[in-house]
UniProtKB/TrEMBL annotation:
Pfam families assigned to the protein according to its UniProt record, in alphabetical order: CheW
Main location: cytoplasm
Compartments, as annotated in UniProt: Cytoplasm
Biological process according to GO: chemotaxis; signal transduction
Keywords for this protein: Cytoplasm
Name of the molecule in the record: Chemotaxis protein CheW
Domain of life: Bacteria
InterPro entries, per database record: CheW (IPR039315), CheW-like_dom_sf (IPR036061), CheW-lke_dom (IPR002545)
Amino acid sequence: MSAQAIEDCWNRVGVRGNRSCEKLAEHTHCRHCSVYGAAAQAIMQRQLPAGYREEWAEYFSREEADETERDRAVLVFRIGSEWLALPAALAVTVVEAARPHRIPRRSGGVLGGIVNVKGRLFPCMSLAALLSINDSQPQQDMRRRAYPRLVVFSLAHQAFALAVDDMSGIHRYAASDLLAVPTTAGKGLRRYLSGVLALNGMHVGVLDPGVVGAAFSDALK
């Protein structure tokens, strides 16, 4: 049945027309009428328009866009001159930088002390000490301003606060984007990396959260 042969009385004498249909008193609305139901069934059973199948076949045969492949996300930050990243899903909160309170005979090295974040105390850990990174500030890019932050990450079933010198935000990437760790990377850094990402003209070391978390836990013992 063609679309032209379908009775569409609801548009003329029904609820979308002048409401002169005598069946309205019985059915209240055209959708309750058998004529309306028969028209709906006829529309569902009509012949597909030319090219309909081919159009949808072509649509579903397309390769997925790059955006759908980027199923991983990292939070990118800077320690000294090194840009690093940890899985964004492990980030608990980000707050303004704060000086940790030193723990007598414990602070120094990887454990910097304890810090209050939104009313809770967290061990404040030094990635610079763990990774043997020179944490002196690099020459600043005059086009942007650095914003030191405290980032709380959940690593090895425990929350740790990390002081970072700057942040670049959350970046998504595909597994194929992760490059091998170059042999030129420092030995202290290389053992904690799972790979390297090229993002916005910079190389970002992606940290292995399991290895970093285990090292932080050992530093608390």
